[in-house]
C-alpha cells in the first residue's frame, strides 16, 4: 500500500464518522414516530412520540368520548363511553403501524413514521 492509499482510506473513514455523528445528533433531537389521532375521518391531533412522551387528552365528538393516555411513549385509550369497550381493552401501542380503533366513536389512534 502506498502513502496516498492510506490517506484516501483515512479520508473516507473520517467522512463516514462525521456522517454517523451527524445522523445520531439529529435522531436525538427529533421524534422518529408520531401518534396520529383521527376522528370521523379527519386528523384530530398529531403528537411526536419519544420514550419520554407523557400526555393525556380527550377526543370528544357528537359520537362519544375517548380518553387517550401516552405514558413513556406508550399509547392507550384508558376510557371511552362506547358500549363494547374494545378500544379500552386493546393492548397499548408503541410501534409504527400499530393502532387502536374505536368503531362506535369513529376514533383511530395510530403510530406513523415522522417523515
Q: Which descriptors would you attach to this protein?
A:
7 strands, 4-stranded antiparallel β-sheet, 115 residues, rod-shaped, mini-chromosome maintenance (MCM) complex, domain 2, alpha+beta, 3-stranded antiparallel β-sheet, 2 domains, single chain
Count of domain modules: 2
Strand order of the largest sheet: 2-1-7-6
Report the β-strand fraction as a percent range: 35-45%
Helical percentage: 25-40%
The CATH architecture of the largest domain comes to Sandwich
Count of helical stretches: 2
Radius of gyration: 21 Å
Q: Could you say which structural class the secondary elements and strand pairing correspond to?
A: alpha+beta
Characterization of the model:
Helix content is 27%, strand content 42%. The protein is of the alpha+beta class and 115 residues long. The strands form 2 sheets. The chain has a 4-stranded antiparallel β-sheet with strand order 2-1-7-6, with no helix packed on it. A 3-stranded antiparallel β-sheet has the order 3-4-5.
Offer a quick outline of the entry.
With 115 residues, the chain is an alpha+beta fold.
Break the fold down into its secondary structure elements and pairings.
Elements: H1 3-29, E1 33-39, E2 42-49, E3 55-61, E4 64-71, E5 74-80, H2 86-89, E6 99-102, E7 107-113
Antiparallel strand pairs: 1-2, 1-7, 3-4, 4-5, 6-7
